[in-house]
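Try this one yourself first.
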């Protein structure tokens, strides 16, 4: 079946359904209106008969002699009065002659026995047959009403009662025939069906016109596809042999060719266009596959670059952006794509001003070092790409690279620290292994010697001292081995406000005991870094406890969290006696301590944990004025930080801790 035929049938069917629906609603409303009008008209006629009956009885019973106490006498007087009343008989005759739906009229007593019947007086004195109430027909559904009206003939009553002394006395029953209802409704039905037929004919004509009109664009598309196919064939014939061998211009699969051949044999325009689009779509899919593979390779290369790379079009819009650009500009990569240089770089910054001036002046930048407002040193290079084959060498775009000089320095520093830590690890592991074996042998022979020495005396006391010192030496060696053992980091994106809050909660008992008041300050937004929360809590707890121990008389302990474009900074400042200048360079050395009960491991472990997180730790101390530790941890990318902002709502720190009395050690080094 051709598309034109399908369109004609579809539009005709749609119009037919609409016409049927509206016609059904219209007919149902007309039928319901006709029934309501018949009921109202008949009800008025029944009330006219009721009024005339009351007038006849009021006038006629006064002229007749009957026994009011005898029901039979009263009934006979009422019947004679109604049958002989000329006004009532005239009213009944006029209703039957002029009402199109009334079949008969009857006046019956309280027992249903007919007193007056019109137009058939032979039923007078008989019990009237039971008929359904016409008001029931008004409340029925449309389908049942249609079945009643257009079904077998039926008679409905419109009853009206007449009471005497609040008791039923007479009843007026007007019969309505469904045959009369159907006859009155039939002209409306014929008119509706005629309109439906006319609508169907009009819908067929309109459908044919719309089908032809709808196929005009398809025929135009078909001609354009033919022109495009001719251009492709010409390009394929002129393609170099290398491209033909590489398969870039190979024909579409046999399935598309078969579809196109079948479309050519068909006289349906849509089938022809479908075949052509199928073949063209297959070629586009082949090109998309090659493009997707190239794009994936390029994205993989750019994601591994530490330098920021941006490629701009002729109108200075970014079309290629490496992921490292986010670190330099603090802007999400998706927001940079398609944006112009003016939208990406702010002239109010040094980097933005240098790049904007270079683009506006058309001047290249060769490895120019720029120090940003945050103190970050960036090496900028800008190269304009020109078309060497054209005479005017017009610009094709520009390539911008951003090289982080600070990262190079930090990497060199981290490599130096890593080499030192590796050397220390190898040394401590070797020393631990070499010392543990002699200690074990000494312990064994010490036990043998203890068994041979008699109980009591100075010899046994000296053996106890030797055993105690050997155990202490064993603990020191074991601590050295544990410190040099590799640690596996469990890195996750953490809000540093929550980490600091947990540290202060863990240290709250000792801080309260020593009379320390915590003065905390943190941003209202999350400060997110990728860290091992347990290790970082251990490092911060060492510094907080040391700060508390440095304040012998209590006082405020400042804990401040801040951030810049690259780093999250955690400042912990006490107001103790400070660290003497001559020992300050040694506070992070393993086993260095000035405390009688200190092990000299706490701050060394803190330094190691910060280095493992690629962070920095600085110390400032003035004797008598306190000590300040500043830990710097790298922030995660700007895009990730934005996603976490909406998720954090809990407070950064607990409230200020109560100030109580306590004692601390005077100096500050290891825990």
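Now uncover the answer:
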């Amino acid at each position: 079946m051709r598309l034109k035929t399908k369109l004609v049938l579809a539009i005709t069917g749609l119009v037919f359904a609409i016409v049927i629906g509206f016609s059904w609603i219209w007919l149902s409303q007309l039928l319901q209106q006709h029934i309501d009008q018949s009921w109202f008209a008949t009800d008025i006629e029944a009330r006219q008969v009721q009024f005339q009956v009351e007038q006849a009885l009021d006038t006629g019973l006064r002229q007749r002699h009957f026994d009011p106490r005898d029901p039979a006498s009263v009934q006979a007087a009422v019947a004679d009065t109604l049958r002989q009343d000329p006004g009532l008989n005239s009213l009944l005759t006029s209703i039957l002659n002029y009402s199109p739906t009334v079949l008969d009229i009857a006046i019956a007593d309280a027992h249903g026995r007919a007193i007056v019947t019109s137009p058939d007086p032979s039923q007078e004195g008989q019990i009237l047959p039971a008929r359904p109430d016409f008001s029931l027909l008004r409340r029925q559904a449309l389908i049942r009403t249609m079945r009643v009206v257009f079904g077998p003939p039926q008679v409905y009553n419109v009853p009206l009662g007449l009471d005497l002394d609040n008791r039923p006395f007479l009843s007026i029953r007007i019969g309505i025939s469904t045959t009369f209802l159907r006859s009155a409704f039939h002209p409306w039905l014929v008119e509706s069906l005629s309109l439906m037929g006319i609508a169907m004919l009009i819908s067929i004509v309109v459908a044919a016109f719309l089908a032809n009109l709808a196929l005009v664009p398809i025929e135009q598309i078909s001609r354009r596809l033919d022109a495009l196919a001719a251009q492709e064939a010409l390009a394929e014939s002129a393609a170099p042999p290398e491209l033909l061998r590489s398969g870039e211009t190979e024909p579409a699969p046999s399935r598309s060719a078969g579809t196109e051949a079948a479309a050519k044999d068909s006289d349906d325009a849509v089938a022809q266009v479908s075949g052509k689009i199928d073949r063209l779509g297959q070629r586009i899919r082949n090109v998309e596959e090659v493009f997707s593979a190239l794009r994936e390779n390029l994205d993989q290369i750019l994601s591994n670059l530490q330098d920021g790379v941006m490629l701009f079009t002729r109108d200075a819009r970014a079309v290629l952006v490496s992921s490292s650009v986010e670190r330099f500009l603090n802007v999400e990569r998706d927001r940079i794509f398609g944006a112009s240089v003016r939208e990406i770089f702010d002239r109010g910054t040094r980097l933005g001003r240098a790049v904007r001036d270079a683009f506006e002046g058309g001047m290249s930048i060769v490895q120019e070092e720029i120090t940003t407002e945050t103190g970050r040193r960036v090496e900028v290079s800008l190269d304009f790409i020109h078309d060497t084959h054209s005479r005017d060498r017009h610009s094709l775009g520009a390539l911008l690279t951003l090289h982080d000089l600070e990262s190079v320095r930090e990497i060199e520093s981290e490599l130096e620290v890593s080499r030192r830590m590796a050397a220390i690890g190898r040394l401590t592991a070797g020393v631990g292994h070499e010392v543990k074996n002699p200690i074990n042998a000494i312990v064994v022979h010490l036990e043998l010697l203890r068994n041979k020495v008699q109980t009591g005396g100075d010899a046994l006391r000296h053996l106890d001292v030797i055993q105690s010192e050997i155990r202490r030496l064993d603990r020191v060696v074991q601590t050295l081995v544990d410190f040099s053992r590799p640690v596996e980091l469990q890195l996750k994106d953490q809000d540093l406000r929550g980490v600091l809050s947990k540290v202060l909660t863990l240290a709250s008992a000792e801080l309260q005991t020593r009379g320390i008041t915590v003065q905390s300050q943190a941003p209202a937004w999350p400060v997110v870094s990728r860290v091992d929360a347990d290790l970082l809590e251990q490092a911060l707890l060492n510094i907080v406890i040391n700060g508390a121990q440095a304040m012998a008389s209590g006082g405020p302990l400042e804990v401040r969290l801040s951030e810049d474009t690259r780093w999250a900074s955690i400042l912990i400042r006490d107001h103790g006696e400070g660290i003497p200048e001559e020992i300050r360079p040694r506070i992070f050395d393993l086993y260095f301590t000035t405390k009688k009960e200190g092990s000299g491991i706490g701050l060394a472990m803190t330094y190691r944990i910060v280095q493992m997180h690629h962070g920095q730790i600085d110390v400032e101390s003035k004797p008598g004025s306190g000590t300040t530790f500043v830990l710097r941890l790298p922030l995660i990318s700007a895009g990730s930080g934005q996603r976490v902002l909406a998720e954090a709502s809990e407070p950064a720190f607990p409230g200020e801790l109560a100030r109580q009395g306590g004692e601390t050690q005077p100096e500050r080094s290891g825990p």
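Discussion: Residues 242-266, 638-671 have pLDDT under 50 and may be disordered. The longest strand covers residues 167-177.
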